[in-house]
C-alpha cells in the first residue's frame, strides 16, 4: 500500500475538526453526543489506517469500507460540508490502490456518494419520474461533473507522484552506480600505483642493489689486500673505508626505499632480515630477531614505524655503541605492540637524539605510542610500544 503524505493526513483532520466546529451549534444533548461519537470513530478509524493498517492489505480495505459507511452517515445526517470527507476517501483510493480492487472501490464509492447526496431530495421511487429530473437534473449533473473532475484531478496527481517516485528511485540508482564507479576507479588507480611501485622497487633492487653489494664486496677484498701488501697505506685505507661507508649507507637507504615502495601487505619479517643482512655484511655482529607469529597482520603504517625504528636502533648500536650482539624482540598482545632492541655495546650517559630518532618519536606519538631509552654503560636498550584496539592488530 502506498502511504499518502503526512501533510495530506494532517490537512484532512484539520478540515474535519473545522467542520465539526461548524455543525456543533446545530445539535443539542443526545444528538450532539451521537455526532461527536460518530466523528471520533471516523477520525480514529482513519488514524489506525494511516498509522498501522497500510502495512496489511486486509485490515486496510476493511478500514476503508468503514470510512465509506461513516462518510455516507456524515453526508446524510450531519451535512454542513461533510462531502469533503468523501472526496478525501476518493483521493486515498486513487493514490493508494491499483488494479481491479481500485476499480471496485471506485464504483462502490461513486454509488454511495450519489446515494448519500440525493437520498434526502426524494423517495427512491420518484427518481425515475420526469418531475424529479426536471427539478433536480442540474444538481445531479453538477454532482456527476464534480465527481468526474475530482477523479481526473486525483489521477493526474497520482501520475505526478508516480513519476516523481520513479525519478527519485532512478536518482538513487544513479547515485549508487556513481559511488560504485568511483570506488572501482579508486581501486583501479590504487592497483595501478601498487603495480608501478612494485615495478620500481624491483628495478631498484635488481640493478642498483646488486651493484652496491658487489661494490662492498670488492672494497672489502681491496681492504684485505692492502692490509697484507702495503706498509704505508694510511691514506689509501682511509679512502677505502670512506668508500665502504658510502656504499653501506647507500645500501641501507636502498633497502628502506624498496621497503617503502612495496605493497601494504609486504613481509615485515623478511624486510627486517634483509636489513640485518645489509648492516651485518661481514657477519662480525650477532643480530637475533624474535617476532610474534601474527606480526604480518598489523597495519602497514605501523610496520613502517617498526622498520624505521629497528633501522635507526641497529645503526646506532653498531656505529656508536660498538655492539657485537644485538637482540630484537617484537611482540603483539591484546593491548599493544612492543619493540625492544637491546645491545651489549658501550652504552652512553647522555642520549643525543638526531633527526632519525626525533622523526621516529613523532611518528610513534601520532599513534599514541611511546619510546623509552635505557643505558647504564653496559649496553643500550630501546623500548617502543604502540597501543592497539582490543581484539585488533
TrEMBL record:
Reactions this protein catalyses:
ATP + protein L-histidine = ADP + protein N-phospho-L-histidine
Q: Does the keyword Nucleotidyltransferase apply?
A: no
Look at the named UniProt entry and state the broad enzyme category this protein falls under.
transferase
Looking at the record, the residues that make up the Histidine kinase/HSP90-like ATPase domain are 305-389
Q: Where is the Signal transduction histidine kinase subgroup 3 dimerisation and phosphoacceptor domain?
A: 196-263
TM spans, by residue? Answer: 7-24, 30-48, 60-78, 84-116, 137-157
Q: Which domain of life is it from?
A: Bacteria
Keyword Secreted present in the record's keywords: the answer is no
PANTHER family recorded for this chain?
NITRATE/NITRITE SENSOR PROTEIN NARX-RELATED (PTHR24421), NITRATE_NITRITE SENSOR PROTEIN NARQ (PTHR24421:SF10)
Which protein, by its recorded name, is this? histidine kinase
Species name for this entry? Answer: Caloranaerobacter azorensis DSM 13643
